[in-house]
């Protein structure tokens, strides 16, 4: 399976920013600082269970329901 | 006048605080922010400043050098007093143990209680956070990361210093002095505000990727599968033993689209490089080369002032490594002159905060 990480990242950015461009950039930066650069993941990226678990925790911490 | 700046180099706390109070006598402050050299006893300076401005929120920290409108200072106290024409409302709390998530949660709950709104719901265009944090705790990333989770409001600030003694740093709130702690403030400025993050580097076109790190120690053991010192030296085309001499002029930057967040190497330990900031495995770190701090900062300040249509005050969190470079180049006067026409205070920090923890940067809060 592939693409789950990209979809999770996009959901976090979309839900935290509500479409606001400034918040989109800020949320992207926060994710990069946490080690998840949105540009490095595509719908073809392999689903890595450890990374998915890490992102789920990040989403919880950020108050985002995936 | 809705903002006043003050400074003193008086050696005694009593005289110094008298001078600060006197210079702020034309204002009834809602909040007083002060930055004090570590030569002033932490407990006594915090209490004296608090007592001098009864009725105001009084917060501050120890420094490694100070800035006040147009001047770069040492061994001084600088202060900025705001009335309600600049800051409508301010709530403050203390994180008594920056290594403890529970302590941070307690401080956030207190802030939310004072404001009456969860941080998550605050409008990032109407509110801004300030953070002053122990500069020797190594915990800035933890605190900034969690604050970033909890709110879209920006927190901006600096890591307290101790005049390069590297023994202990302090933050001040409500007449108390704390170490291993952070002061958090949520401000509701009366008007518009802007944030500047400026660093004087350009990417050299080489990217280093940490492949083995010890995050807790802010240590990179390997870049690209090679011993960190070897990879860094090779990227710059110098022998390994020459590498530490280049740390200040050639740090690395975490690439975030068109921008980067500087991570400064501190020292070599074996084959590893210890940084002033945590890096994670897999991060793309661009190798950087220093540019001119004075001209870059002037441009950044002028651009922000132009965007806001004027500035009534600036708070400048200015990295100690930038301060040392300016001093080495004899550019203190030129740097100070950037802020000559705008009420400004600032201090030389052991790290800067904005979205995350940063090095060799100035983060500034600009009030219209």
Greatest interface by residues involved: A-B, 17 and 22 residues
Structural class designation of chain B? alpha+beta
Unreliable residue stretches of chain A: none
pLDDT average of chain A, as an integer? 94
**What is the strand tally of chain A?**
0
Number of domains of chain B: 2
Overall geometric form of chain A: globular
Main sheet makeup of chain A: none
What's the Cα radius of gyration of chain B?
20 Å
**CA distance, first residue to last residue of chain B:** 13 Å
The number of domains of chain A is: 1
Query: What is the terminal-to-terminal distance of chain A?
Result: 18 Å
Which SSEs are present, and which pair or pack?
The complex is a heterodimer of chains A (66) and B (368).
Chain A: H1 4-17, H2 21-33, H3 49-61
Helix pairs in contact in A: 1-2, 1-3
Chain B: E1 3-8, H1 13-23, E2 31-37, H2 42-52, E3 57-63, E4 66-68, E5 71-73, E6 77-82, E7 87-95, H3 101-115, E8 128-133, H4 140-150, E9 155-159, E10 171-173, E11 176-178, E12 182-189, E13 193-198, E14 201-208, E15 210-214, E16 219-223, E17 226-227, H5 228-236, E18 252-256, E19 259-263, E20 265-269, E21 272-275, E22 285-290, H6 293-308, E23 313-319, H7 320-328, H8 332-337, E24 344-349, E25 352-354, E26 356-358, E27 362-367
Parallel strand pairs in B: 2-3, 8-9, 23-24
Antiparallel strand pairs in B: 1-6, 2-6, 3-10, 4-5, 4-24, 7-12, 8-12, 9-25, 10-11, 13-27, 14-22, 15-16, 16-17, 16-21, 18-19, 18-22, 20-21, 23-27, 25-26
Helix pairs in contact in B: 1-2
Q: Could you explain the architecture of this structure?
A:
The complex is a heterodimer of chains A (66) and B (368). Chain A has 66 residues and is an all-alpha fold. Chain A contains three helices and no strands. The mean pLDDT of chain A is 94. In chain A, 61% of the residues lie in helices and 0% in strands. Chain A has one domain (4-61). In chain A, helix 1 (4-17) crosses helix 2 (21-33) and helix 1 runs parallel beside helix 3 (49-61). Chain B has two domains: 3-197 and 295-367, no CATH class; 201-288, no CATH class. Helix content of chain B is 24%, strand content 39%. Chain B has helices spanning 13-23, 42-52, 101-115, 140-150, 228-236, 293-308, 320-328, 332-337, and strands at residues 3-8, 31-37, 57-63, 66-68, 71-73, 77-82, 87-95, 128-133, 155-159, 171-173, 176-178, 182-189, 193-198, 201-208, 210-214, 219-223, 226-227, 252-256, 259-263, 265-269, 272-275, 285-290, 313-319, 344-349, 352-354, 356-358, 362-367. In chain B, the strands form five sheets. In chain B, strands 1-6-2-3-10-11 form a six-stranded mixed β-sheet, with helices on one face. A six-stranded mixed β-sheet of chain B has the order 5-4-24-23-27-13. Chain B is globular. The two termini of chain B are 13 Å apart. The mean pLDDT of chain B is 96. The chains are: A mainly alpha (66), B alpha+beta (368).
